[in-house]
Amino acid sequence: MIANYGYKDGSGDFFITIDTDKCDGCGDCVSACPGGVFAVGEDPNDPLRDEPVAIVSDEQRKKIKYTCNPCKPDHDRHPLPCVQACKPSAISHSW
Amino acid sequence: MITAGIDIGAKTVKVVLVEDGGILAKSLVLAGIDTAATTQQAFDEALAAADLSKEKVERLVATGTGRKDCALTDREITEVGAAAKGAIHILKSCRTVIDVGAEEGRTVRCDENGKVIDFAFNEKCAAGAGTFAEGMARALQVPLEELGPLSLTSRRAVQMNAQCAVFAESEVVTLIHAKTPRQDIARAVLDAIASRIVSMVRKVGFAQDVVLIGGVARNPGFVEAMKRSLEMDVYVPEDPEHVGALGAALAAAE
Amino acid sequence: MSEKQEFWRWKEYRWHDESMDWKDADIISAGVDIGSVSSQAVIMADGKLYAFSNQRTGFDSPESANQAINWAMEGTGMTVKDLHYTVGTGYGRVNVPFADKALTEIACHARGGNFMYGPSVRTLLDMGGQDCKAIRCDERGKVEAFLMNDKCAAGTGRGMEVFADLLAIPIEEVGELSLSVEEEPEPVSSTCVVFAKSEASALLREGWPKNKVLAAYCSAMAHRVVTLLERIEVQKDFAITGGIAKNSGVVKRLEKELGLEALKTKYDSQIAGALGAALFGKALETKRRKN
User: Fold this and answer.
1) Do A44 and C107 touch (CB under 8 A)?
2) Are residue B118 and residue B75 in the same domain, yes or no?
């Protein structure tokens, strides 16, 4: 499942995409993210999945543009910690 | 040489007349249906205040969101450039200008000459600008100018979850129903705007001194919220909404 | 004394199948969808739709959940004790006091959409009161891709309510009225509802008739939703649920821009979430009985 967490508002598209078929629920993204955006647990969007999966929590979903800002400076941008930490390459950002 | 700076914003039109770096007169008119007429009115008011005829004004420069449609001026500069120029004229040590208007938030980093190093916008979404406070004041049933003073009496920080101005209005109503003190809600509203502005500021980085301009800087509760969020002092000029127009007038003299 | 008319307010209603006797059923499952604006309760008897209610959500979610289920059961002789398995969903899903489990709207809408529109449906767009969801699912109603936008009021029922109120047009009439323009105007340029509202006020002052302003807003909303849908890759068949599915002004423009016709259903599009929840309720009760 391609899970898009985030939003589109007047200023643009801000989505973190998790490919739940690739995600193995290891939780490396949870510890890598300085903003506490990720959590690992039961997939709330797939009641029939048994394995844990990474999700973006409800309270973070609506403000990721702001929470992710420190990892996205306008200049000298380094690879995003969450994307880098994810071994199965399940995480991507839309902006 | 006498020059004029005309700042055509979303809600107001500001005019500043300058002679050799000194301010002669200022005016501010609420934007009506006809922007050209409003602009003319603001210009006439400034001329009247300075007791000048329009022929005495040698150069005019426009700035603001409506700058491209200004018939009076022969040149225009961006809001970013105008903000930096105006702010550094007022405070030499200024390195960061944060401009919060009705529909847009802006941050500008500049060097000691007022040259723009970097900038960022919060635009096209009411959550990151003054309009957000307007809707919440309406929901709280307090006049907009009382929202700031009211927030300063708050003793407790409450969290607002809604990001969107439309949804936040309903959240304010819910908070009122839950008997949350109005001053705490007022503070939550201003904290919410400040945190979005500061997140944008952090994206481009900032250095002292920080000058806060734009109409929203008139709100003392917002200024306090910005200080809390930035964890440093900010300088608010006497007429924060006129700094852009001042910058434009100074640019006209160059 | 006349009260101020509330143009955004739509009608609440309930229904139950009088030809059915629920006592004959083996499994009675229920789904309760507590949305931010509206709440629905659906009761199914052995996987067949038996009763539902659709009402406005109050300030208190547990109270709204109780009201919704009691209203759906009104005149049926059924009580909450007769429900074998209840699933709560929607924004207030954790506040359904009598629910056995809470599931997200994403899972429930896909399942409910599959029931309402049949197994050929691949793309579901749900435009609710306070959010907009796009879901791509397989022939069993399992989610393959989704996105949910509940941060911003643009593209939601709440945004449309703001416009109905501004123009003093009853919300049910917005769609038809917006289609009554001779020529399609340019869409409103702002996405943000707050800015779009100032834009619309300016257009009204310029002398635009109300239908033209509504047309400009409906097409802006349709366009915005199409750009959202692109993220999950639209596939045939396509269906729209939620309150906005009843607004022909948005639906017609959306279909035109997508080049796809939305499937029709005999069911009320607003109950998709609660319906999916009730279907999961039946599946989960079956599983529980096996163990």
Assistant:
1) yes
2) no
